[in-house]
Amino acid sequence: MTRTLDVDYLVVGAGAMGMAFTDALIDHSDARVALVDRRHGVGGHWLEAYPFVQLHQSSAFYGVPSTLLGGGQLQQHGPEAGLQERATQAEITAYYARAMDRMRETGRVDFFPNSEHDGDRTVVSRVSGATFRVPETCRIVNAHYLAPSIPAEVPPPFAVGDGVRVVPVNDLARLEEAPSQYVVVGSGKTATDACIWLMARGVDPDAICWVRPRDPWMFNRALIQPDLEIFLGMAADLMESAATSTSLEDLFLRLEEHDIMLRIDRSVMPTMAKAPTLATWELDRLRSIEDVVRRGHITSVARGKLEMTEGTTVGIADDALVVHCAADGLKYPPLVPVWRPQDITLQPIRAGFPCFGAALAGYVEATRTDDHEKNRLCPPSNYGDSMAQWAEMNVRGTRATLSFSAEKDIKQWADGVALNPTRVTPDQPSSAALDDARGRLAAHTRPALERLEELVRGARSGPREK
Questions:
Q1: In which order are the strands placed within the sheet that holds 109-112?
Q2: Which of 189, 254, 323, 269 is nearest to 465 (CA)?
Q3: What's the per-residue H, E or C state across 399-415?
Q4: 3-class DSSP state for residue 446?
Q5: Is the full-model pTM beyond 0.90?
Q6: pLDDT value at position 38?
Q7: Bridge-partner residues for 84, per DSSP?
Q8: What is the pLDDT of residue 466?
């Protein structure tokens, strides 16, 4: 039998964005919510992530708005002493489990794990086969529109020949026999994590072959901190650089001069700009890997060799272990209005902080009634991939921030949420550096946005970035 649930919202996806939206919604309304996920628990892809992963940004910027992830403490030891703590996979999954317990304690949230939404208001358990429906008045919240792909859940994007050892990055932590060579495949954060982890376990950099089809730009982690003086100083440098840049390449080189952007090889102009954060100590270690393959993507792996899209063959050790870090990761579907008649589609709003965007959408949903007004306040932002997409992300995210911050109640709410990187706390001390950053932001933000829009238009009309 199919039963009907008496709920106001069906949130499809219990990952970071679905949890942040639900948390804000129930804290500012009396809504009843059914939360559904195909996985066995809450936390999304973190449940399947490689065991040595950490957040690339500060823990304070991640999670749900009601509860700080971690203790908000500075690291006391190690190469990142003085920077904000970054949660491990185990800490993140435990945090989300506690957040779900809190939601359930309200009596207004039910969680349905191992279940699929069929797209027609019906949810089916993949374990018991039980089904339930939600009423026509229930709003559907699409919290998996941007769900990432990770190596543990997708096969490698190349053919694998007989006798070749290819493992997802997760399996590095379970190796029983060391190969003479590791071939790390991928250009993003997962690949950098794999390389850093291997070297931390004593692997010689010369024993690592890094297949890096595109070189990445990455943020300097020391500047993406929950410290208003540091963050606004970085933002002011960014806007001032953007306002006078002659090209996208010139912009990123200016940001590099300000130590905002980092690249592994200073002789190569990166074309990938997903821009996760990276610590300078990690950068130093990554630069010690000299065997870097830039011949396109791998088409197939055979014993002793890699076949590449550029038609070349790269030799590797016969016993090489190929480490799959080449899942798509972030997704880039078309932007759609967050609020539509058929659903609420969660997307980033402020550039680079998806948990804050989802929480903001939850707060606005709880406090406004008109969907047109909600969309005006919270236009969606894209993720960055190329330099042009990164610039567009910052234009959209900054304009959205100007929009929602003009509302007194939203500004007050956002200043009380640690997920917001520019929140102003009641005890925020004034300083000459903070006053300078605010003054430069006021002077340069408008011309910077206009210039970034010009650069994005130019990139669209010019040769496509590879």
A1: 109-112, 33-36, 9-12, 139-142, 344-345
A2: 269
A3: HHHHHHHCCHHHHHHHH
A4: helix
A5: yes
A6: 97
A7: 74
A8: 38
